[in-house]
Amino acid sequence: ATFETHSDRVKLSLPTGETAEILLHGATVISWKAGGEEKLWLSEKAVLDGSKAVRGGIPLVFPVFGKTTSGPTSALPQHGFARVSKWEVLGKSSASATSICVDFGLGSENVIVDFRKQWPFDFGLIYSVTLTPMSLETKLLVRNEGNQAFDFQTLFHTYLRVADVGNVKVLGLKGVTYRDKTQGGAEIKEEPEAVEVKGEIDRMYVQAPGEVQVEESGKTVYTVTRTEDVKDVVVWNPWENASKNMGDFGPETGYRNMICVEAGTVSEWNTLEPQTVWEGGVTVSL
Ligand code: BG6
Q1: What ipTM goes with this model?
Q2: 21 carries an active-site annotation
Q3: Which of 25, 157, 190, 216 is labelled catalytic?
Q4: Are 181 and 279 in contact (CB under 8 A)?
Q5: What percent of the chain lies above the pLDDT cut of 90?
Q6: CA of 227 to the centre of ligand 1 (A)
Q7: 160: CA distance to ligand 1 center in Å?
Q8: Atom of ligand 1 nearest to the CA of 204
Q9: pLDDT bucket at 10, cuts 50 / 70 / 90
């Protein structure tokens, strides 16, 4: 297995043909190919030059999910600064004939002064992306390098590619309570066996079971598993109207080819004491 570094991205390749591409901007995974097919959805209007967050792929959310109105994250942009900061390639941490892992780093000293002022904590992030023939794993290590505790949220904002979201079922969430952003955050218990997408959907499933399956036309196309500290799962599709209002969303019918199944720890704050570490990851398997 190999990895190549280009000026703005890193490309991982396996001898069996699978590849992944990660932009240094946001350490955003923008492509994952297996079996000759792209597995992630990337908007054809996505801006990849570092001037804004990437629409598609796997943007990494840190240290806040969405927007807050109070507390130290309230001045930060939506979903925090990790996805709009330039990361460093730390290098390959493991490789064999059947897998490769590359690490990326972002520390308080690497973020722009504005973010540092808005969120004045000393932190270090290590983001590891592992490609195997049948899976892609993303793992984050958060280290508090300062002498005061901080609160954070993090989430892997994965845009999975599907042939037609109308035929998709998300399984494994029955009985879980979700906060529905399309209904002002109302808390609702999931009753049906499967989540189906027939219009705009924006739900945070709080403390979901460790495995969620995405089925398309009766066939499991993705299995999403998480480590224990990655507690929640967000299911999002903007559908027609909301995607029209995003300047970087294309083609117009692109919402039919994607479903975001986003694993994270976002329903509450994680407090990280000085000189301690949090680690969490998610694996998408085919
Ligand atoms: C999802 C949120 O995770 O991200 C949605 O639940 C939000 O509410 C979406 O619209 C996209 O956010 P952004 O900042 O990338 O447009």
Answers
A1: 0.98
A2: no
A3: 157
A4: no
A5: 99
A6: 23
A7: 14
A8: 6
A9: very high
pLDDT tens, residue by residue, 56-76? 999 999 999 999 999 999 999
Atom of ligand 1 nearest to the CA of 59: 15
Q: Residues enclosing ligand 1, CB less than 6 A?
A: 53, 78-79, 157, 181, 202, 234, 236, 262
Domains and their CATH numbers in the chain? 2-285 (2.70.98.10)
Which protein residue has the closest C-alpha to ligand 1 atom 6? 202
Q: How far is the CA of 265 from the centre of ligand 1 (A)?
A: 15
The pLDDT score that the predictor gives to residue 211 is 98
Q: Ligand 1 pocket test: which of 47, 68, 76, 78 has the largest number of ligand atoms within 8 Å of its C-beta?
A: 78
Q: What is the mean pLDDT of the chain?
A: 97
Query: What does the pLDDT average to over 153-182?
Result: 98
- For range 44-48, the mean pLDDT: 98
Query: Is the overall model pTM greater than 0.90, yes or no?
Result: yes
The ligand 1 atom nearest the CA atom of 53: 15
Is 157 considered catalytic here? yes
Query: Would you state the structure tokens that stand for residue 152, as one six-digit string?
Result: 């954070």
